[in-house]
Amino acid sequence: MRVHQNIDKPITVLGLEPEEWAVLPAAMGIVNLVLGSAVLAVIGGLAAVIAIKRLKRGKPPGYLVHFLYRKGLPVKGWPKPQRGRWRYSS
After folding, report:
1. What sign for the dihedral angle of Cα 85, 81, 13, 51?
2. I need a surface site. Which of 1, 7, 18, 28 has the fewest CB within 10 A?
């Protein structure tokens, strides 16, 4: 029986996790609404993907979701984000 070696690796497409791909249509939509150009929207979306890849370089999987949670963005199924100082138990 053959067991795959990458059974616990996260699913990625072009190096980005599914949650991170949600940034692409959001960035494209915002650029299209502001500038009214589909060509500039595609360029803005690709720039967002490049920025995410650079932001994630050397970081663990799920970094972007945790980063946004710490900045106050609610994540479905997680407790409400804390405001102010983060305290860790000792």
Report:
1. negative
2. 1
Strand, coil or helix: what is 82? coil
Which residue in 72, 71, 55 sits closest to 63, CA to CA?
55
Q: pLDDT digit string (tens) for 53-79? A: 888 888 887 787 788 777 777 777 777
All structural domains of the chain with their residue ranges:
19-70
Assess contact for 27 and 48: CB atoms under 8 A: yes
Angle at 40 between CA 34 and CA 43, to 5 degrees: 125
- Dihedrals φ, ψ of 13, to 5°? -125, 120
Distance CA 48, CA 24 (A): 7
DSSP for residue 39: H
Q: How far apart are CA 90 and CA 81, in angstroms?
A: 21
- Please report, as a single letter, which amino acid is at residue 8: D
The whole-chain average pLDDT of the chain stands at 78
